[in-house]
Design goal:
This protein is an alpha/beta fold and 448 residues long. The protein contains 14 helices and 15 strands. It is globular and about 60 Å long.
């Protein structure tokens, strides 16, 4: 399913970068590494979540240089699974990969290894060495926990939860993954983008001095809407229109703006200790927009007193900006421009000819490490804490109160359904007119 970029914008990004990061030539798997169940050098992959992002992630895994086979697929909906499978079997993947060619020979999924329903992941995970988790993020904690329990390596999309209880579940599983030396990559792909990596190196080397503040933005028109169809249960409707329900998505501050928030945390080398802000539903007021806000502004404060000013907006016809800027005592980083400057003088400018496609690179690097029997990636803890930062921001805008990190992450707040079934009750329900309850600053409370 689509997440941080629409398919159209993802494809445009890939074409703009016009290259795939080179994966390392496959080496024989080490039979004593304990990494795979395979008897040969095949790395078996299962895809959990077969929407647009899942399709893209599966293609990127199969486009790596290693001997990778997709052996199982799972999704709550059969039509989504079928659409994904058919896309993977296309003769030309240029629109998806920018590289042309196809991956059909690497798709080893049969009717017996296509699993539909809420429990499909339990049947797919045992069949593979690597699990790709790309369902709506509300399911990520339980899917990640199960994959690690079964000793599997994981690529999972961001965000990794929608509530503090889910974040804690991911953190616990992350510790188990480290103990088992299981590689985990999280789709905060700026960590795998050459320009960001080069900027980060220079910040860590002291080029801009101490970071005192940052500005991060994800402002644009918004994403798709799925209208209610006759005969749908409330659970099915919310699952189809998942972006607009917090138990599934976490609001767009969590689902998209997490990328920009994560950059500030990454360069800063820590996570905020508290947050306060404002937000609401000014333009997207229809029932089809569920319960989420259309704009958020959050002031995050770090332990040293430095501030991250965060804004995200989904309103058509408004100024669009997706970027990050970090201000230090000796310079300013403009991430979108890939430049560091001080008082109008350029200190460093990244060579755009050396840019890569980070969506592909995160898979290239993961599967190259797996083929060599290496333990290199432990992204889950940062993924969980980046997610918690965004959730803390949502709690601040929804309540209008100052929200402290320690209190929020240890609150045990759980917004997930009691059970997963098509006739099960959803955490939020529409009124007689089809409208959902909306958080109201000054009224909505998380803590006494």
């Amino acid at each position: 399913m689509k997440s941080d970029l629409t398919n159209q914008s993802r494809r445009a990004f890939v074409k703009q970068t016009s290259l795939l990061a080179g994966g390392l030539v496959a080496a024989p798997l080490l039979s004593n590494a304990g990494y795979f169940n395979s008897v040969d050098d095949t790395i078996k992959v299962a895809l959990i979540g077969c929407g647009g992002r899942g399709t893209g992630a599966a293609m990127q895994a199969l486009l790596t240089k290693q001997n990778v086979k997709l052996v199982a697929m799972a999704d709550a909906f059969r039509d989504r699974l079928d659409e994904c499978y058919n896309n993977l079997m296309q003769d030309d993947l240029s629109d998806w990969s920018g590289a042309g060619g196809n991956v059909k020979a690497k798709v080893a999924v049969t009717e017996e290894t296509k699993f539909v329903g809420f429990d499909g992941y339990l049947k797919a995970i045992p069949l593979a060495d690597v699990i790709i988790l790309t369902t709506p993020p509300g399911f990520r904690p339980i899917h990640f926990e199960e994959a690690i329990k079964q000793g599997k390596h994981v690529f999972m999309e961001k965000p990794v939860a929608t509530d503090p209880a889910g974040v804690q579940k991911v953190l616990a599983a992350a510790e188990e993954a480290k103990k088992k030396k299981l590689n985990v990559v999280v789709g905060l792909q700026r960590h795998y983008q050459n320009s960001y990596r080069e900027l980060y190196k220079r910040v860590k080397d002291g080029m801009i001095g101490d970071i005192t503040s940052g500005q991060v933005w994800w402002n644009n028109d918004g994403v798709w809407v799925k209208m209610r169809e006759p005969g749908q249960t409330e659970m099915e409707y919310q699952m189809r229109n998942w972006y607009y329900f917090n138990w599934l998505c976490g609001d767009h501050i969590n689902e998209q703006h997490i990328h920009n928030i994560d950059v500030m945390n990454w360069f800063k080398g820590g996570y905020p200790v508290k947050a306060q802000g404002m937000g609401g539903r000014q333009a997207r007021t229809g029932k089809e927009f569920g319960e989420i806000y259309d704009h958020h502004y959050v002031e995050f404060e770090y332990a040293d007193g430095s501030i991250m000013n965060s804004q995200c907006r989904h309103i058509k016809g408004t100024y669009a900006k997706v970027d990050e800027m970090l201000v230090g005592t000796k310079g300013v980083v403009k991430c979108g421009a890939a430049e560091i400057s001080y008082k109008g003088k350029s200190l460093y400018k990244f060579d755009r000819s050396k840019e890569n496609n980070p969506y592909q690179s995160e898979h290239d690097e993961l599967f190259a490490a797996l083929a060599k029997g290496e333990y290199k990636f432990a992204d889950a803890e940062n993924g969980a804490k980046a997610t918690m930062t965004a959730i803390m921001g949502r709690m601040a805008t929804y309540s209008g109160q100052v929200v402290e990190w320690d209190k929020a992450i240890n609150s045990g707040i759980n917004i997930m359904p009691a059970k997963f079934a098509w006739d099960a009750e959803t955490p939020t329900k529409p009124d007689a007119n089809g409208f959902y309850p909306i958080a109201m600053p000054g009224v909505t409370k998380y803590f006494s």
